[in-house]
Amino acid sequence: MSGYFLASTHKKGYLKTTCTQPTDTFTSCQSLSAGKMTRQFGTALSWLKGRTAGIFCCHLLLVVSCTSLYLRYLESLIPADELPVAREGELRRSVNLDDTLDFTARKWVETRTSWEAPIIWEGMFDPDLYDQKHIQNQSSVALTVFAVGRYFAYLKTFLTSAERHFMLGLKVTYYVFTDQPEKIPPVNLGPLRSLKVVLVKKYSRWHDDSMMRMKAISDTIESEIRHRCNYVFCFHVDQQFKGRFGSEALGDSVALLHAGFFKTPKEGCTYDRNPKSTAFMTNGDYYYNAAVFGGLWENVQTLADYCFLDIMEDKLNEVEAQWHDESHLNKYFWLHKPSRLLSPKYW
Fold it and tell me: Domain-by-domain residue ranges, the chain?
C-alpha cells in the first residue's frame, strides 16, 4: 500500500534572490546635498517608526493572548455544574482500545515508543472494532484546514477526498479557515458531516499564514469546537486522502512521524538549533510533521496556545524558527510526549 496520504509536492527550502544596487561615487562627504541628507533622515525615521509600531503590536497581541489564557484558566475553576452542559453522550471520551493492538504485526519497524505510546501502522488494529466502539461512544471530530491565498486551489480536492476516507461513520465538522469565504466550492457532504467557514486574514508571507493558524485554531476551539466535538485534527490543505484515515488515529494527543526523516538519525533531523529561538532543541525523540496533528480538543488547544506564544516571543526578539510552526510543534511534543503516533503511512 502506498500510504494513506499523498504528500505535498512542496520541498523544504527558501527561494533565494540576489539584489544588486548601484554604487554612488563621491569625491567627498560634502557632495551630499542637504536635501538628499534630509530625505535619507526621513526614510530612516519612517523605518524606525514602522519597526516600533510592529514591536508595539506584537507586545499588545502577546498581552491580549496571555490575558485570554488566564481568563480561560479562571473559567476552568468554576464548578462544572455551573457551566453549560452538552447533550448526553456528545463529549464522551473514547474507550481505550490499545490493548487490542498487535505490536508484533510490523516486526521490521518500531511500533511503540520508549514512553509506551503506540505507533500506528496498517495491520496493527482491527478497523471494524475501532469504528464500532467510537460510533457507540458517539465520538465526534472537528477537522481544521487553512485555505488561504494560493493554497485555496487545493481545497476542493482535499474536502472531496476527506469525504471518501476520513473518519467514516463518525460525526465530522470541517472548519475551513480562508480569506475567500465567497469562493468555497460545493462539496457533497455525507450523513453526520457538516462544514463551517471561518474568515481569517491573509498575510504577506505564507510562513506567517502557517504560524498564525495556531491562534485561529485555539480561538475557534474556545468559541465553538469544544461545545460540539471531543476530538480535533488539523491538516495542511495541499494534500489528499488516498485511503482510510479512521478512528484508530484518535487519541489524547496525536503526532505524525515525518516520512522524510523517519529513517534519519536524530542528529540529521531539522530541529531548530538556534539558541535564540524558543523552538531551540539539540535532539528530540522523533521528527514530527506539522501537516497533521490532533487529539482531544483541550490538548490541541494547549498545543496551539503554546506554539502561538512562543512564535510571538520569537517575533519580539526578531527571530524566526527554522521551519516555522513545525519547529515549535516539535519542541512542544518533545516536552509533552504525544500519547499516539501515526506512522508515515498516514502522510
Answer: 136-342
